[in-house]
Specification:
single chain, alpha+beta, three-stranded antiparallel beta sheet, 13 strands
Length: 188
């Protein structure tokens, strides 16, 4: 038995779940997430919880059972409270600006290139920029899309190990290296 898969998913008040095989839809207010569910799993919806059970022998479905239970739980948590990722931009003269163009939001990143990079955000991901601290706060109900968006922004300038410049996650530890001058104690 899958320890993760057999745990029920609590449904907070106001979260509406509909399952029309194979599509599961979770919504609350204006946030709506949909996901196709694997055919070897069944979903039982009660008034305050949701359970995922395998169809057929659980030995063959154990990895999918735990995976889809976690994905469904992320959907429920996403529409009820949402997910947040914070990115820090570290570098002299590096800046970030939030742009709004016809309802679509994008980020203008000045990361030491010859020109600024404009990064369009997906419609469900919202960004706020703290210009003084050079921090980008990304908020979305979709955890998967949020992580992918943060990783794409970070990929423009990953943190380098010598001076620590780059785009990094808040709280991320950068393993620093000693430069050329600090490597040798002197002499030839």
């Amino acid at each position: 038995m899958s320890r993760i898969g057999k745990m029920p998913i609590p449904l907070p008040p106001g979260v509406k779940v509909t399952w029309q095989e194979p599509i599961l839809t979770v919504s609350k207010g204006s946030a709506t997430l949909t996901r196709p569910i694997h055919g070897s799993l069944a979903i039982a919806i009660a008034k305050d919880q949701l359970t995922v059970t395998p169809i057929g022998p659980p030995e063959n479905n154990k990895p999918l059972w735990g995976l889809f239970r976690t994905l469904i739980n992320n959907m429920v948590v996403g529409v009820s409270t949402g997910f947040t990722k914070v990115l820090e931009v570290v570098g002299v003269g590096w800046r970030v600006e939030a742009l709004e163009n016809k309802g679509a939001q994008s980020l203008k990143l000045s990361l030491g290139f010859s020109h600024p990079v404009e990064f369009p955000l997906p419609p469900t991901v919202k960004a706020t920029v703290d210009a003084k601290a050079n921090k980008i706060t990304l908020v979305s109900p979709d955890k998967e899309l949020l992580g992918l968006t943060a990783a794409r922004i970070r990929s423009y300038r990953k943190p380098e190990p010598y001076k620590g410049k780059g785009v990094k996650y808040e709280g991320e530890k950068i393993r620093r290296k000693v430069g050329k001058a600090g490597g040798k104690a002197g002499g030839k």
